[in-house]
Amino acid sequence: MTTYRHQLPQLQQRLFLTDGGIETYFVFQEGRALPYFAAFDLLRSEEGKAALAAYYERYIVIARENGAGFILESATWRASMDWADKMGIDAAELANINREAIALLAALRRRHESAHSPMTISGCVGPRGDGYQPGALMSVDEAAAYHAAQIRIFSTTEADMISAVTMTNASEAIGVALASSDAGMPCAISFTVETDGALPTGQSVREAIIAVDAATGGAPAYYMLNCAHPSHFEAMLEKGGAWTKRIKGLRCNASTKSHAELDEATSLDAGDAAQLGRDYARLASLTPSLSIFGGCCGTDHTHVAHICREVRDAEGARFAAE
Fold it and tell me: CA-based angle 99:141:194, to the nearest 5?
């Protein structure tokens, strides 16, 4: 039974955390081979499920110690049909993987949630193509039809919401938002941002958010930015504007490298965790709507701990109502 589907606690004025770069963590820090960078492969064994549970619990400790909420994001970024086909996984097994991903998070919530640390379960949806390159763009209808299968499965579980992460273009984001609405699921849209502060298509974040809201009647509960270092988009947020109030969360890279450089990297660039925390605090002061903080490529629980501490120190008065 879902807990927060009709009233997401992260929409209140309180500090929420989420996890870091799950794929880069398991590949570079645990030395696991993830086919096609698909963390959902871990859900295919009991040992892999245990590793995932341990991964989430590192972050849960940070949230609980700081009285912050936590968004449990499922390891299903690649768990859609095109990627499953590449791995020889049929539709029935894929559906079970998506259900297992949410069941794992629901068990963690039952063990660890408290009044001071509410925990939202989010079904993670990734792009049909690459999260760095837009590739062949789908129409809105094509995107909605493609993502609807995964979203419908999440709607039958304890998932409270959908998070569409590393969206590279507005059309696919619109499709996800419409499919989520059709399934009765609130959603968050998180856009991949390049070093120039724009989407990989060249469209500005402002234009993308306005386009998605216009096409869906403002269906997304909120927006996030991901897969870029804060220095890549700080100037954009500094300019402000009413549209920035729709941005509620950040999942930044630790590295200042471009996506092309990261694609070619053979080792992890974990950046400077302490500096990343200070960068987040500065962005939070620029954009008061920001209250959800996690990481993307190259980040782990140590980065999120620094982010949490720096944001709380800088913005404590804003989150005092917790």
Answer: 80
- Give the SS3 label for residue 198: strand
> Does residue 321 have a pLDDT over 60?
no
Three-class DSSP labels, 70-139: EEEECCCCCCCHHHHHHCCCCHHHHHHHHHHHHHHHHHHHHHHCCCCCCEEEEEEECCCCCCCCCCCCCC
What backbone phi and psi angles, to 5 degrees, belong to 162?
A: -115, 135
pLDDT of residue 320: 64
Amino acid (1-letter code) at residue 51: A
Distances in Å between the alpha carbon of 282 and those of 119, 154, 163? 26, 35, 25
Task: Give the span between the Cα atoms of 274 and 295, in whole angstroms.
Answer: 13
Taken in order of first residue, the domains within the chain and their CATH numbers are 14-299 (3.20.20.330)
Q: Is this prediction's pTM over 0.70?
A: yes
> What distances in angstroms separate CA 28 from CA 23, 191, 220, 266, 304, one per listed residue?
8, 24, 33, 9, 17
Distance CA 129, CA 126 (A): 8
Categorise residue 86: left if φ over 0, alpha if ψ from -120 to 50, beta otherwise.
alpha
Query: Which residues pair with residue 124 across a beta bridge?
Result: 163
pLDDT in tens, 93-111: 999 999 999 999 999 999 9
Query: 5, exposed or middle or buried, with CB in 10 Å at 0-12, 13-18, 19+?
Result: middle
Distance CA 153, CA 103 (A): 12
